[in-house]
Amino acid sequence: MSQVKAHHKLKIWPEFFQAKIDGKKPWEYRSAIDRTFTVGDEVLFIEFCHDKQMETGRTFGPVVITYVLRIDAVNDIFTHTMPSNETPKE
Fold first, then answer.
1. Exposed e or buried b for every residue in 21-59, given b needs 16+ CB within 10 A?
2. Percent helix, strand and coil across the chain, each rounded to 5?
3. What local confidence, expressed as pLDDT, does residue 49 receive?
4. Integer Cα distance of 11 and 70 in angstroms
């Protein structure tokens, strides 16, 4: 078993938090501008009420990151779907 690399605490709005608790949202899409996520890192989700600008006291996790999709990989998917000699149909 791999060792945990880093610990992250992430705020999450109530409607998304509940979906995570219910098992309907096993994934998370986050910008990595202010942090670097890597496989093996732990994440603790903290429910945050955006209307009141405060934490609710509920948490989920910690969970271990098992996959990271980099935005450059997503961009490659979209830029390479059409052969360069074809033009889009309108």
1. eeeeeeeeeeeeeeeebeeebebebbbbeeeeeeeeeee
2. 20, 30, 55
3. 94
4. 21
Answer for the pair 30, 48: CB distance below 8 angstroms, yes or no: no
Rounded CA-CA distance 12/20 in Å is 10
Q: Can you tell me the distance from the alpha carbon of 90 to that of 85, in angstroms, rounded to the nearest whole number?
A: 16
CATH class of the region 7-79: mainly beta
State phi, psi for 64 to the nearest 5 degrees: -100, 130
Q: Which residue, chain included where needed, has tokens 């670097």?
A: 36
Query: Measured between alpha carbons, how far is 76 from 73 in angstroms, rounded to an integer?
Result: 5
Please identify every stretch of the chain with a pLDDT value under 50, giving residue numbers as ranges.
none
Give pTM, 2 decimals.
Answer: 0.72
- How high is the pLDDT of residue 10? 94
